Amino acid sequence: MTTIDTIPRITRGGAAERLATAAFDQLLALLDQLSVDEWDAPTDCPGWTVADMVGHLLGSAKSYASVREQVRQQMWGFRHRREFDGNPLDAINALQIEDHRTLAPAERVAALRAAAAPSVRGRMRIPAAFRRISGSVAAGGSTAAGMPSRDTLGHLVDVIITRDVWTHRVDIARATGRDLPLDPETDGAIVADVVAEWAGRHGQPFELTLTGPAGGAFAQGDEGERLELDAVEFCRVLSGRADGDGLLGVRVLF
């Protein structure tokens, strides 16, 4: 049983760069398997096909590889947020999808492969002074109810963007019926960090058993609620993709 305070958290000085790179590698390995027809499959994100999801991921990768591109997307999102229930992130996501609308599947994969490494390097290069900046997380739009209302830039670039890539790989595998190989060194580390963040948000005692290659047994305090579910499903619940109540109704950012 792993206690929460012994979970290695994902940080720039720790595993952030390795996990960010591995998450892109896993995603690209999945995309390489897809047939042309599978790119039109609907995903768990309402209104998004696999192609849309990859367009979003490609736009996100480009934004962290280039300051100019980051500014362009942020300004567009700010100007158009009212069209998306006041949520500038939804506006940016829509721009990312539209920017890559005309790319064929092979072109999307090639562009994402080219952008992945520069994106990770760009995220890791952000200075400490900027990493400490805290900003609000937009509510409304597609944001799941109960998400944290603020986050730091450092946590965003070290952890949340990697979670986004990881979770969308899960979405794409589910949409296409493809196998989802899981590696304890990568997937397990990402899931464990989610567990630690979730435990810190609610602060209640619990015993949690997550099944599957990315899982483990975790505890906080004594005589807490006992929970058992699949590790990937646990993350889907906490991201708002599946229903959860009690402690499983506490969200974390994805």
TrEMBL record:
UniProt key word Isomerase: yes
Asked if the record carries the keyword Transmembrane helix, the reply is: no
Q: Which Gene3D superfamilies match?
A: dinb family like domain
Please give one Gene Ontology molecular function term for this protein: isomerase activity
Q: Which InterPro entries match?
A: DinB/YfiT-like, Maleyloyr_isom, MDMPI_metal-binding
Q: Which UniProt keywords apply?
A: Isomerase
The record's section on Pfam families has:
MDMPI_N
Q: Which domain of life is it from?
A: Bacteria
- Residues of the Mycothiol-dependent maleylpyruvate isomerase metal-binding domain: 22-173
Q: What is this protein called?
A: Maleylpyruvate isomerase family mycothiol-dependent enzyme
Q: Record the organism.
A: Nocardioides vastitatis
